[in-house]
Amino acid sequence: PPLPQAEGMSETANGSLTTHVLNTATGLPAAGLAVRLAQLQEPGPQWTELVQRWTDKDGRCLLLLAPGKAKAGTYKLRFETAAYWQGLGRASFYPFVEVVFTIADPTQRLHIPLLISPYSYTTYRGS
């Protein structure tokens, strides 16, 4: 069955914020992994969740922020890695991964990939 995604999303969508998750233990995309996007409310340490999506069969999560929806500020992507690994029958050292980043120019397209294994992860600013 298809993985849950927001309606109207297509594989060719070009949003202002996207992510891609790869399982480095298998060399395959991490399909069905829950991803949450939140924005830090200034002033103070209060996060407001904006959206939750799941990666598709290619490990991609498109249109986390559609064009025109981004604002300058601090955001975080939370990847629910424990549930993903449990679904594969594996234990995970990290119950979740949070990637905090700043959007300085809301008109710029951002892509934030995540590489995961049960005992490590890495991220970078993609293109």
Description:
The chain is mainly beta and 127 residues long. The protein has 1 helix and 9 strands, in the order ββββββαβββ. The strands form 2 sheets. Strands 1, 2, 5, 8 and 9 form a 5-stranded mixed beta sheet that branches. It has a 4-stranded antiparallel beta sheet with strand order 4-3-6-7, with helices on one face. The protein is globular. The model is unreliable at 1-15 (pLDDT under 50).
What is the tally of beta strands? Answer: 9
Rg (CA only):
14 Å
Portion in strands = over 45%
Structural class: mainly beta
Q: In this structure, how is the largest beta sheet organized?
A: 5 strands, mixed
> What general form does the structure show?
globular
User: Averaged pLDDT, please?
Assistant: 87
Number of H- or I-type helical stretches: 1
Termini separation comes to 30 Å
**SSE string, helices as H and strands as E:** EEEEEEHEEE
As residue ranges, the low-confidence spans are 1-15
Q: Approximately how much helix is present in the residues? A: under 10%
Task: Please outline the helices and strands.
Blueprint: E1 17-23, E2 28-29, E3 34-41, E4 46-54, E5 60-65, E6 73-79, H1 81-87, E7 97-103, E8 110-117, E9 120-123
Parallel strand pairs: 1-8
Antiparallel strand pairs: 1-2, 1-5, 3-4, 3-6, 6-7, 8-9
